[in-house]
């Protein structure tokens, strides 16, 4: 693997990328830096944060590099979004055969720019209101999500990378996370 390439808005994914770089000896670059440091087509591991179910920067990274594996970083404990649904169906792989992982990042509303804060506000508000309305019937997980959306939370943990580090050591890998042409039937 030539490099770890990441996109991060509030720092959780960046911290995971830097920890992974330290543990594997593979250098980490932001997607922007990678544009200057890596050649097109290089083999990379991509890490991107989840925004409304899609992985930020993944499309640009797919256009430019050969993505052998990717980590999706979101706020929920169990993972979500289209790509993670593919991984659950395919036993940890994208439809195109690249290895996928999910990492719980966190939620830091104070670090969000105006645009993303405005995007997040209605979603966060609706989760909090729904959980309040459910009262005693709300599950522990629902309560935890409401708490995170109200006060923020940081779930970045070194151990969460263990499985990815093992996968790096098993290399080389030949699967690829790439767009699969869809057939409408
Ligand atoms: C506009 C917006 C939409 C988001 N959508 C999702 C989502 O669909 N699923 C999820 O698990 N987390 C979602 N998140 C939470 C981020 O993925 C989470 O905060 C992540 O850790 C951010 O990584 P970063 O600190 O590297 O930017 C969203 C955050 C924002 C600001």
Topology:
Blueprint: E1 3-7, H1 12-24, E2 28-30, H2 31-37, E3 43-51, E4 54-55, H3 58-64, E5 66-74, H4 82-89, E6 99-104, E7 106-107, H5 114-134, H6 140-151, E8 153-154, H7 162-170
The structure holds flavin mononucleotide (FMN).
GO molecular function: electron transfer activity; FMN binding
InterPro entries: Flavodoxin_CS, Flavoprotein-like_sf
Protein name: Flavodoxin domain-containing protein
> What small molecules does this complex bind?
flavin mononucleotide
Total separate domains: 2
Structural shape: globular
Give the class from helix and strand content and strand pairing. Answer: alpha/beta
In the CATH scheme, what's the topology name of the largest domain?
Rossmann fold
How confident is the prediction overall: mean pLDDT?
Answer: 95
The major sheet is characterized as:
6 strands, mixed
Strand content: 15-25%
Kindly provide the radius of gyration, computed on alpha-carbon positions and rounded to a whole number of angstroms: 17 Å
Straight-line N-to-C gap? 37 Å
CATH architecture of the largest domain: 3-Layer(aba) Sandwich
Number of helices: 7
Please trace the helix and strand order, writing H or E for each element: EHEHEEHEHEEHHEH
**Fraction in helix:** 40-55%
- CATH class call of the largest domain: Alpha Beta
Number of extended strands: 8
Low-confidence runs: none
How would you describe this protein?
This protein is globular. The strands form two sheets. Strands 1, 2, 3, 4, 5 and 6 form a six-stranded mixed beta sheet that branches. Strands 7-8 form a two-stranded antiparallel ribbon. The chain has two domains: 1-108 and 154-180, Rossmann fold; 109-151. With 185 residues, it is of the alpha/beta class. It has seven helices and eight strands, in the order βαβαββαβαββααβα. Bound molecules: flavin mononucleotide (FMN). The site of flavin mononucleotide has 25 residues, from helix 1, strand 3, strand 5, strand 7 and helix 5.
